[in-house]
């Protein structure tokens, strides 16, 4: 993997997204810089998935601006994203990764070796020949990570990759995420799990009703939250 983060810092300035007169993101101003893992939290409907899609360049803004490494309208060559329910191609796990490598422009002669390396990185080296759609939910998420890493990203967006997974599968994903982060890839990950946020986060970004509630180092967020919404969320109270 390449360490330089050419798509960072990612800067949103008064970024808004509206759909049919419904505000999904409301004037978000946020900078995502190189460094430890950023955890994005908030209740359902807070705008987490939309923010990740905007950051990836998949959703256009209705207002405000976004830049990647000081450039607007930059192609997402150094960005990758995985979704909560990744779609698996109707082929083997290894062939899924080779397809991602081809899409990333990796020369044909290098794809077999690189695919094997990526499958090993996510603990699927023994399952490369298995049809991807016959893998368990946790295994499919690990395969989705391998495909995303085929892009050799500088920044990786993860949309609740452990939702509905059991503790064993969750730990496997968390271990991969931490290993990838340690290699210099900036990871921005959404989660509902406060325990997971405490385990992984270098800093926390909290959204509620499409607004930025807090953006602070994790230790400060969990010990001295600045807003009432954050205090309620940490205490397990419902936000309405």
> What spatial order of strands do you see in the largest sheet?
5-6-7-3-8-9
Q: What is the CATH architecture assignment of the domain at 10-87 and 155-234?
A: 3-Layer(aba) Sandwich
Query: Unreliable stretches, pLDDT < 50, 5 or more residues?
Result: 1-5
In CATH, the topology of the domain at 10-87 and 155-234 is named Rossmann fold
- Oligomerization category of the chains in this entry: single chain
Strand content: 15-25%
Main beta sheet = 6 strands, mixed
Count of DSSP E strands? 9
The Rg value, from CA coordinates, equals 18 Å
Question: Order of SSEs, N→C?
Answer: EEEHEEHHHEHEHEEHH
- Given the C-alpha coordinates, what overall shape results? globular
Distance between the amino and carboxyl termini:
42 Å
Can you offer a commentary on this structure?
There is one protein chain. With 240 residues, this protein is an alpha/beta fold. The protein has a domain at 10-87 and 155-234: Rossmann fold (3-Layer(aba) Sandwich). It has 8 helices and 9 strands. The chain has helices spanning 48-56, 93-103, 108-121, 137-149, 167-182, 194-200, 218-223, 228-234, and strands at residues 10-19, 22-32, 38-41, 63-68, 79-82, 155-159, 186-190, 203-208, 211-217. The strands form 2 sheets. A 6-stranded mixed β-sheet has the order 5-6-7-3-8-9, with helices on both faces. A 3-stranded antiparallel β-sheet has the order 2-1-4, covered by helices on one side. β6 (155-159), α5 and β7 form a beta-alpha-beta unit. α2 runs parallel beside α4. It is globular and about 50 Å long. The N and C termini lie far apart (42 Å). Residues 1-5 have low confidence and may be disordered.
